[in-house]
Amino acid sequence: MEKIVTFGEVLQRWSPPGAWRIGQQDMWEGQFGGSEANVAVALSLLGNDVEYVSRIPQNVVGDACLRKLKYYGIDVSDVVRGGGRLGTYYFEKAADLRRSLVVYDREGSSFWSTTPGMFPWAEIFGRTGVFHCSGITCAVSQSAADATFEAVRTARDMGLRVTCDIYYRRFLWKYPGADAHKTLNALMQYSDYIFGDQDEWEVATGVPKIPEDKMMSDTVLDMEAYGRYFDEMHRQFPNCGEMMLGLRNQLTTNHHTLSALLWYKGTIYRTVIFDITDIVDSVGVGDAFVSAYIHASGKWPGNPQRCLDFSVTAAMLKNSIVGDFNLVTEEEIIAQMP
């Protein structure tokens, strides 16, 4: 089994209980999360050998965070301790037609001050087969972006399979000189597999999305249009052999439709459109896509349709799990696959 390494920032997620709004309640529910940590946890639960690399404060909060990751069987031996605090985000759950609300508080965190040279990448990657990162690490600060590029360049030079989640969040690109399009596009040039939703691909590539705002379970997708779309993606990223486009339509807070398309070495694969009518928590759905695909492509190499079906089903099931982590097994995913 190939070892998988993920790199990013662990966050403390704070939410008022139930459907209460921020500022309406004095009670808060706290959980650990963050994109690359979410991917690491899901991959570990699917039976993979996973290491998570980050910078975490040397205090009791950092200790608790590492205990949680170790609980899920994740190697944290190369985590660097230091900096002032753990990054946080405040999440207000959606209700009825009111959308969810996210407020990030990451400036000044331990990961925010991460710099190149902090991590022994050559040593870490010497025992690794897959490296996963996301664009959100590059949005935190210039130094975190520089550290991310140091990692992906080393991984590429050492022949690892590099996977990338575009993960664009416009509220985070605040530091002087921050350029989401330029940075994300450059990061994706190193990637063997890229995931993103319609809006994220548009930011990273400049190519307008194909609107699917009215996607229902019986919608017939315009595959000719998507063929032209992926032709342009392949032109921009000629070294990338696998690209996934996540499709989600949020009809109401609790009712989404969900699907994805996979461009695999020149052929486009599609799967069913799931109709999800009782959503518990939609945070981390993109991370569920990514982790499931990394797992599936290692277990069923050369079977892109099965890998896509597995990934979309895992993402569908994440909507039933409270918190950032997708706590489902391979058996549970397979049982729900189309």
Characterise the protein shown here:
There is one protein chain. The chain is an alpha/beta fold. It has a single domain (3-336), classed as 3-Layer(aba) Sandwich (UDP-N-acetylmuramoyl-L-alanine:D-glutamate ligase), CATH 3.40.1190. The protein is 35% helix and 23% strand. The chain has eleven helices and 15 strands. The protein has helices at 35-45, 60-71, 121-125, 136-140, 142-157, 180-188, 198-205, 223-236, 285-299, 304-318, 330-336; strands at residues 3-7, 11-15, 29-33, 49-53, 55-56, 80-81, 87-92, 101-105, 130-134, 161-165, 193-197, 242-252, 255-264, 267-270, 274-276. The strands form three sheets. Strands 1, 4, 9, 10, 11, 12, 13, 14 and 15 form a nine-stranded mixed β-sheet that branches. A four-stranded mixed β-sheet has the order 3-2-7-8. It is globular.
> How many beta-strand segments?
15
How many DSSP helices?
11
Instruction: Name the helicity range.
Output: 25-40%
The CATH topology assignment is UDP-N-acetylmuramoyl-L-alanine:D-glutamate ligase
On the 0-100 scale, what is the average pLDDT?
A: 95
**Main sheet makeup:** 9 strands, mixed
The topology string of helices and strands comes to EEEHEEHEEEHEHHEHEHHEEEEHHH
Extract low-pLDDT stretches: none
CA-atom Rg in angstroms: 19 Å
Tally of domains: 1
CATH superfamily: Ribokinase
Span of the ends, CA to CA? 27 Å
Q: For this structure, what is the CATH class?
A: Alpha Beta
